[in-house]
Design brief:
The complex is a heterodimer. Chain A is an alpha/beta fold. Chain A contains 12 helices and 19 strands. In chain A, α7 packs across α8 and α10 packs across α11. The longest helix of chain A has 17 residues. Chain B is α/β, with parallel strands linked by helices. Chain B has one domain: Rossmann fold (3-Layer(aba) Sandwich), CATH 3.40.50.300. Chain B has a 6-stranded mixed sheet, with helices on both faces. Classes of the chains: A alpha/beta, B alpha/beta. The interface between A and B is medium-sized, with 22 and 31 residues.
Amino acid sequence: MREKELEKLKDYKYGFTTDIETIKAPKGLNEEVIKFISNIKKEPEWMLNWRLKAFERLKVLQEPKWQKPKYPKIDYQDIYYYSAPKSASEKPKNIEDLDPKILETYQKLGIPLQEQKRLNGIAVDAVFDSVSVATTFKDKLTEKGIIFCSISEAIQKHPELVKQYIGSVIPINDHFFATLNSAVFTDGSFVYIPPGIRCPMELSTYFRINASDTGQFERTLIIADKGSYVSYLEGCTAPMRDENQLHAANVELVALDDAEIKYSTVQNWYPGDKDGKGGIYNFVTKRGLCKGKNSKISWTQVETGSAITWKYPSCILKGDNSIGEFYSIAITNNHQKADTGTKMIHLGKNTKSKIISKGISAGLSDMTYRGLVDISPKANNSNNYTQCDSLLMGNKCGAHTVPYIKNKNSKSNIAHEATTSKISEDQLYYCQQRGLNSEEAVGLIVNGFCKEVLQQLPMEFAVEAQKLVGISLEGSVG
Amino acid sequence: MLRINNLSARIDNKSILKNFSLQVNAGEVHAIMGPNGSGKSTLSNILSGKKGYDLSGEVLFENNNLFELETEERAHRGIFLAFQYPLEIPGVNTNIFLKTSLNAIRKARGEKELDAIEFLRLVKEKAKELKFEEEKLNRQLNVGFSGGEKKKNEILQMSILNPKLSILDETDSGLDIDALRIVADGVNSLRKKNNSFIIITHYQRLLDYIKPDFVHVLMNGKIIQSGGPELALELEKKGYENFN
């Protein structure tokens, strides 16, 4: 059976993209499936071997168990590791088939109908606007020598870059989910900024055609060469629905001397309904390496979706004078759970890191900030500042702060501040007396609470994110 | 404008207002004076729509049953409460709060919302009238404001929202004499034939600057006497204890 499918694939001379509906890897996780994926993507042998090496390692790894949110056991043999894009019969036929709550959110965010369909994998008629926009952008980037394409394409066209950097930040033996991704990743983005180039626009997955169907094991690699700058946006504010429950993405960033990478995420995967049914497990590994001196990596995230969010975008500050930043807003409502934070590993001298984390929990949800600041013996004159604020709404939710602080250098400094507060009935009453309804009031208060992080987002994104913050907490008061 | 008929209020089974009645017509200023615990703040809370009270009786605002209106709907219709203890909202810029509030009310009334420039022009003008430092408008709402600044901020909001019925809940407490005069000027400048005020206070001194049309003495949840401005002076002389 498996053989046959592989045969069919080889025979199909137009490649797999046009004959989408019939191709699906057999269920389960094994060497054959990994070969199948690699084959479908026409990968060179080194890539396949790399995947297989990861798979070997995976066999002896266990899922981590230390996190706060627990989840039912995942049967890894019961998952299709390659089935993207989905066949028409699996997709919702009409926009009306979706959870009405999602549709309501679209309305409030002002997402056009075509875009709503695209986000939910409903077939959209031929060409829509973003395609032509994407082409224009692509020309502009090529002019500067910037590479921005899918990782599959990069493996084909820029193997030397991929080979050099893939797994250099998240090694294939890192931890269970990262290793799983290394073995079976389907697609994702690749960015390379040449030396001295300042990327003239925000790079967004939105402008990469077909970006929405990268599947559940996404892999992204961004390399900023010496003296370059790039700002990358991942995700969008509209809720994303997906049949796959487990998402285990890997994102690797590499900044060489004097380079800067700014990576912004808005994660709004389906959180499940208000009773906690359904929803995505978002178990992503994001790590940046400030490899060169004076380099800088800045993570900004707005996490409002998913049933369980489990992620720690981190910075390894290897180059002297390098800077790592982490700005985070995480919101959980209803039955959502999040265990998120960052790791700042100071290896180089005079390295600096800053962590601003704003956690908001409402309903029956549970939120944990977990962060590591580790200053090595050689990282002289380094410092970290951490500010970790939690805001509670109602009295059935939880907020926890778990900082791990290791300072092995007497010339370095770590400062940690944490607060927990609650939106008081009186604050809401005050706002309502001034004419705001309870949801507007919550939106205002919460946006005030998150302001420092929202300010880090690129302008057009910030406005939408601000709306999203309010919407995510709807129904959590009164 | 406002008719309160036999209003009784209980909270946690404790009776606070007992068959309270009051009528406020358009253009009138009513002062309500009373000792601590007489039910003054409860009255302002109930009128503005704070939840948590067991209520009976009837309150009509422009012939609408007030109990059927949400807190924000009352604000939309022109009821304003200057809080005894204005709330701090960290992270929320004072200007943005004011603009959000004004536009929420304008929108509910079907009026055009003000853009940033129109709003700033308005707020600057009002802040100047009330000698409210403009710099404070860019600070977080009431955070780090002194008691007097918070109260002035309430009056600033009042003058921007231009309500029909303003309730001032002990706005004078904690004010020095200069601030008191500024607050009074703010109220007086809003006194028009369509705007009414309920001024809740312990002391007579605010009434030196804001001449009320009526003074009511509230004790144990009931109005025990009503009269003109002279009643306040009499009260000041005798004290609450000997007033009966």
